[in-house]
Structure formats: C-alpha cells, structure tokens
Amino acid sequence: KEVAGRTVDLAGDGTTTATVLTRAIIVSCLEGLESKEYNINELKSASKVMLEEILKNLDSMALPINNDYNTLRDIAIISTNNDVEFGTIIADAFQMADFTGTVKAEALPGVKDSVRQVNGLELKSGYASPGFLKSGQAQIMFNRCPIMIFGDRVESIENNLIIFKELINKKMPLLIIAKDYSNEFLANIVSLRTHGNAHVCLIKAPKLGSQGLDQADWLENLSVMTSATIIGETYGLSPESVSFDHLGYAEQVEVSRIQTNIIKPKRDVKRIEHRLEEYEKLLFSPAYGDMKKAD
Known about the structure:
The protein is of the alpha/beta class. It is 45% helix and 16% strand. It has helices at 2-10, 15-34, 40-61, 69-79, 84-96, 161-169, 183-194, 215-226, 269-283, 286-294, and strands at 120-123, 140-154, 174-181, 200-204, 248-255, 260-265. The protein is globular.
C-alpha cells in the first residue's frame, strides 16, 4: 500500500509493477537474512549501490519527450489502458500547461471528461509530519483555506494561540508555510490536528537556487501570489500581532508527502505588478549580467 502510494505521488503510474517488484525484493532479502548469507548492514549498503546503478541505467534508456505533443499523447493512451479519448485529454492538459505546469485529475461523478485551466502554485515540499494525515489518507485536502507564512524560524506556538483558537472555533482549515521551525512547534501543531481537531498542516518553505532569487525573494513572491503577509521580526510583523488580515487564501490546497498544490490562490494584483517591475529592472541591470557570467 505504501509503495503504491509513493509511486502515484512520484510517477502517477506503474503502481502494480512497483508493488510486485517490492514484494519480490522483500521476499528475497528476508530469505538471504534468514540463511545468514549476509547481514542487515551489508544488505543496506548493497541496496544503495544497486539503486544508484538501476537509476543510471534507467536514465540512459529514457527518451525525452521534448514537448512533443504526439509522443506525449501516445504515452498517455498507453497509461490509460489504450483509452484514446482519455489519453488525448491528458495530452491536451499538458499542452495547455505548456508542458511544465502541473496537471491533476479530479473525479466528478456524472460529469463528462474535460480539461480546464486554473491558476495555482506547486511547491516541492510536502507535509512536515504524517501526523497531519487522517486515518487512511494519502494526502491532505483543504477547501477555502487560509495560508500563514513565517519568514523566520518559528520556535513556539504560544505567540499565535489566539488566531489558532479562532480558526478552530470557526472550523476553518489552515496551511502553515515556514522557513524553519523547532521540533516543539511541529509537535504542537500536530497535537492541534490530532487532539484539538484542527484542520491544519505545516510544510517547510522549499529552498530555491541561484539566478538572483534567494529564499527571501521566493517567500515574498509566495506572499504576493496568496495575498499573505510574511510573519517574522525580520519582516516587521511579530507573531503576536498576527490577525486574519495577514493570512493568505486559496480555494483549494492539496498536500502530499513530497509536494503541495495551492489552487486558485487569492493573488495581490498590485503587488504582482510591482514585483514584475522589480524583476524587469534586475534582468536589465549590469549586476545581473555579471551574476550570470559567474554562474
């Protein structure tokens, strides 16, 4: 069950193959351990080496699609058990997303298969703890979800108890995105979920690389795209001063083990325009050209 869930998260297909392979590997390993052919440390080391070799071989055999619609359509048809109509819809969705956006399927009984485009964000960061999952869940889903963004490391929940209590009383969900957090803060947030019946989830802000965009810039962009105000002394907003006006919002939030989708966020149009002007100035500045040369 776990390997099938992880395969869906990472690849979206191949669950049966992954499950059969996992069973065969487990059975073979247990037989080797019971016969004392090798010990657990040798098994762990050998598994790591073999995994690296398998990944290298798969990479060497892989054929890039290179935004080729027909190739993608053929793959999609095979993945849908030769359903030409459904495979074509999937290919259309990827083309609509410019082959780099996020594509997801949604089951709606009685509704004809179709493609629709919505604004949203995909973050390469999943839930901070499986404790946020309900029993039997593979991912967390919130509708009409407020969003809280912490720009500094969060040590304690005490400074935000009032707003957390308000959200719980109103039975509203909450997605918390934090640059960093203590184990105490994580444990307290999980406790709100498990013992306080709060619909809450914590994720760590994913790190972003070079090209003139550091994590502070990235968090600012995230706050602009969700209409949230970044919380933290560094940003001029102490945790004690946080109110509902400082929270962002999205129509839907989906959080899995490895990623978070923020769908139909409430965007701050004026701030977006201002950020775009700033990036335009950066792109044409001599400093950016020097930075590109250094990279």
